């Protein structure tokens, strides 16, 4: 009896990064296809008109055994484009959906490893490591920040693997930069990315939180590796500050809206703890200058974000695109 093919939607959302998108698509073209699966690539451009037609056509010829769908989402905001992909995958009857970011590349066995881990534990969502890709032509200062990000990513990956080995992979937070979801779970739950976030980002963390509330079975695929190609514009302390600020502002506003009294009670302690950690990092900066300065910038950003949550100030993280 012939085994039924499982249909996997490989989703990509993109905006103003044609060069980086081509690098991601090239890695998709080299990707091993798991046995008994059929791949459908869905690329959604967040723009008012299509600008990637030639790039998509070249990619289509590079994956002759797969189908490729190119759509444009004119509403500006990453949650809109993620939902566009999700809705296409669900309405087309696919079984699974993956996401990797348009500034990343995937290892050839990425999809095989994600699927194997998903199947082994019947997971609703599974994620994997994101490693900084090597950089060239950067200043010594930028190299120091890149090294710090690399060291932090390695520590995070080791911690995730240790958590998985103890049978606690379900406690790990999973972002859509390396992600596979069981579409039956999303069909039955009706969960979507929160479009109220508009340009602010953080839509994947919020979705993940909601899936855990209703009992999603989640896990970690340690060998499903993607590489983050970090633009030079992000190799600054200012960017690390802004990213942390924006994320923390979004999370704090969410908590204030849903658990105001509890959040107000917790905020002074959270600020004090981050301030203490920042001071400690500054003290040890002569020993570990790169990592300590990056962490200090992030702690200061998170403190600023908590305070900003009480104001009308918005810092739309998705408004400005880095990379090309």
Automatic annotation (TrEMBL):
<feature type="domain" description="Glycosyltransferase 2-like">
    <location>
        <begin position="10"/>
        <end position="146"/>
    </location>
</feature>
<dbReference type="InterPro" id="IPR029044">
    <property type="entry name" value="Nucleotide-diphossugar_trans"/>
</dbReference>
<dbReference type="InterPro" id="IPR001173">
    <property type="entry name" value="Glyco_trans_2-like"/>
</dbReference>
<dbReference type="Pfam" id="PF00535">
    <property type="entry name" value="Glycos_transf_2"/>
</dbReference>
<protein>
    <submittedName>
        <fullName>Glycosyltransferase involved in cell wall biosynthesis</fullName>
    </submittedName>
</protein>
